[in-house]
Design a protein that fits this description.
Number of domains: 1
Shape: globular
CATH topology: Alpha/beta knot
Strand order of the largest sheet: 3-2-1-6-4-7-5
Low-confidence stretches: none
CATH architecture: 3-Layer(aba) Sandwich
Strand content: 15-25%
Helix content: 25-40%
Largest sheet: 7 strands, parallel
Mean pLDDT: 92
CATH class: Alpha Beta
Number of strands: 7
CATH superfamily: SPOUT methyltransferase, trefoil knot domain
Order of helices and strands: EHEHEHEEEHEH
Distance between the termini: 18 Å
Radius of gyration: 15 Å
């Protein structure tokens, strides 16, 4: 794996079009995509393939049984944990090449105990309206990834 690239991690994604859209985002930016745990769909799902269009061959895709296995494979890397409950804005994260940006499942997010173990690594996208609980997963991935690309100088390589 290239040390200079960024990584998107989806923990137990449930909605095929979200994962397909994020795969397309990863193909467009040279970002590696990591799917962790039990998926809420088959990789043969027609909606997953439709959202990813014909870009799937251009996605560097990795699957992992658990986040712990992924983290132990890359112990020197930083893992940014996304949560609407975090206090730090995604814009204040200070991304570095090689960072992993971790998203939880659409219905639940990341486990509270994971975030409690790594409070300094938790980031959020501020939302002004209390009427909106959260943003769509693929929208959130795009916002965070492009900010990380900008901060690391990798945006100029696109």
């Amino acid at each position: 794996m290239k040390k200079s690239c960024l990584h998107i991690v989806l923990i137990e994604p449930e909605i095929p079009p979200n994962t397909g859209n994020i795969a397309r985002l990863c193909a467009a930016t040279g970002t590696q995509l990591h799917l962790v745990g039990k998926l809420g769909f088959s990789m043969d799902d027609k909606y997953l393939k439709r959202a990813g269009l014909d870009y799937w061959p251009h996605v560097e895709l990795h699957t992992w049984a658990s986040l712990e296995k992924l983290q132990s494979t890359f112990p020197e890397r930083r893992f940014w944990l996304t949560s609407k409950k975090a206090t730090k804005s995604y814009a204040d994260a200070g991304y570095q090449p090689g960072d992993f940006i971790v998203f939880g499942k659409e219905s639940y997010g990341l486990p509270e105990e994971l975030m409690a173990r790594h409070p300094d690594d938790c980031i959020r996208i501020p939302i002004r309206s209390e009427a909106v609980r959260s943003l769509n997963l693929s929208t959130s991935a795009g916002i965070l990834l492009y900010e990380a690309l900008r901060q690391t100088g990798l945006l100029e390589e696109l």
